[in-house]
Amino acid sequence: MKTTLGALILSVGLSGCHSTPEKPSTPSAQPRVVSLTPNLTEILFALEAGSQVVGVTGNDHFPPEVDRLPKIGDMQLNYEALLQLHPDLVVYDPLLNRQQLAQLQKLGLHLEPLSTQTLPEMLNSISRLGVKVGKPEQAARLVTRLREELELCKKRREKMNYRPQALVEIWHDPLIAAGQGSYCTEVLELAGFHNIVSRPGYPTIDLEELQRLDPEVLVLTHPLPQTPVWKRLKAVRNQRVLEISEDLLVRPGPRVVEALHRMQDWLELRQPVPRA
Amino acid sequence: MRSWLLLGGLALLGLVTLGLCSGSYSLSLSQVWNVLLQGPGESPENVVVWQLRLPRLLQAILVGACLSTAGAAFQSLLRSPLADPYLTGTSAGASLGTALAVVLGLNYGLYPVCAFAGALGAVLLVTRLARIRQGVRLEDFLLAGVMVSTLLGSLVSLLMVLAGRELSRLVFFLLGNLSGSNWLLLGWCLAPFVLGTGLLVWNAYPLNLLSLGEDLAAPAGVAVERVKLQVLLAATLLTASAVASSGLVGFVGLVIPHLCRLWVGPDMRKLLPLALVWGGVFLLGCDWLTRLAPQELPVGVVTALVGAPWFLWQLQRERKC
Question: DSSP readout, A206-257?
């Protein structure tokens, strides 16, 4: 049940991986686009295709312009509102929108699945999205810039002498952490941390397990719970708690670079905790 | 009765020991013993025992005892074998209180307060609806309880749709969950528990007479309306504090009283203490099972999963005798 909950929580925060038959693309040069996940919306705006976005989900808050756009539901899509917008293109994440896919396919829309569960997948999706919305040059530029930035982050990581074990909190009650093979772990390790959680995906961690793991660093996307159980943790006592906006860390998009800079700046200012 | 009570006490002791030694942080019995002797402290072992396991075990006992005694009281008062502590709108009221707290984004510490307020509010409403001139008619009370529960339940569903990401909290609340136990919460539950069980024990004998019918109880010297109100109030307090601290743990309040009645008969003077102990034993046992699962389960799922077959087996055995 918690797995379902975890998936539920994540799917709102994140923005995937099986293929669906593609429909022939519409000839329109500047198609009207509806985005079904917040991270794809961010990518569209980064491609300077913001003016073509005609609808987003209720979970979209970045960039601020999206607040003015029509909302077509969140976990539960409002299919009529979606049709009302007459989109030429609907972009979605095959993993996160899998429950809505059967219904979407009946509506005669032009659907485009774009997976973003890993950094290479995300870069690939940016290129494909660029072609679909008539911004191939912008996409190529963005991908090149992101590749360079990621490369710089890797180089910066090589120079660091502090590479602590960290636990990334994705949700606080119940505690859900980023596990092996997840997008968050990829970003975390690129920044220079090691993920202390060995379970795959996004596992629920009970508080006893948290005590057992007792990570050197806590990366939190929500405020630190003010309970004795949390306050006792090594990371809290040594003030090794890195708070980072959930959107930056969890949503695979161009702002990943910001997340990486933030984590690496934090790491460079710190030294390994001397053993008591 | 003595032997059942003794057995219950031993079961409690055994389960507490077992509970203190099991969990995902591995600790041996001697380690646990040492930590207990040290008193609360800072080491990880100490935090696991003193801040996680001990409050949770005590909370399980307290909540089980609350629900089970409240159930016994309602069943006797309403003379209905199907009565359970949630019948009177407490569960729906507490759910609504919690759902509102979640949707309004209140501080987590306030959730139990909102749940408690919701539960009391719902019961006051039910009692008000069932009140005619000088007394409460129990049939009306039952009906009003069911209707108010339905009404508030639909409001909870509405809020759940609006809750979005915070939905997980509500789901855990609605299934009953002991993993949020802490000393503060335990302290808050203690006063209603003492007051509630005290009032019930005080009224145990009048309740026995009352179960013969109001017409017979009044001439025997029972202040019928006062007893009814006191019992309703006490059972409600017990339920509200259980729900506020641990969500809707189902089944305990319905079945443990029945089970105890099979063992000692309907005399409330025997039934109440037994229900109190065995409610604690049952919930403690179920909570221990939830912690054995690879993914921790909400305790409400286990109570029904374990409780229903157990009860049916007991019932079959009793019928054959």
Answer: -HHHHHHH--SEEEESSPPP-SHHHHTSHHHHTT-EEE--HHHHHS-STTHH
For helices B138-163 and B90-104, give the axis angle rounded to 10 degrees. 20
Please tell me the distance from the alpha carbon of residue A178 to that of residue A204, in angstroms, as a whole number.
9
User: How many C-beta neighbours within 10 Å does residue A86 have?
Assistant: 11
Q: How far apart are CA A151 and CA A131, in angstroms?
A: 24
- Residue B13 exposed, middle or buried by CB count within 10 Å (0-12, 13-18, 19+): exposed
Give kind and range of the element (H or E) at residue A137: helix A136-158
Number of separate helices (H) and strands (E) present in chain B? 15, 2
Question: pLDDT (tens digit, 9 = 90+) per residue, A158-200?
Answer: 999 899 999 999 988 789 999 999 999 999 999 999 999 999 9
Asked if the Cβ–Cβ distance from B169 to A173 is below 8 Å, we say: yes
Q: Which residues of B touch A8 (CB under 8 A)?
A: 167-168
Q: Do A5 and B171 count as a contact with CB atoms less than 8 A apart?
A: yes
Containing domain of residue B257, as a range?
Answer: 249-321
B131 and B260 inside one domain: no
pLDDT of residue A261: 96
CA–CA separation, A233 and B274 (whole Å):
41
Instruction: Tokens for A183, please give them.
Output: 């997008």
Q: Which of B211, B229, B248 is the last residue of a domain?
A: B248
pTM of the model: 0.81
CA distance B11 to chain A (A): 25
Please report, as a single letter, which amino acid is at residue B203.
Answer: N
* Global ipTM: 0.73
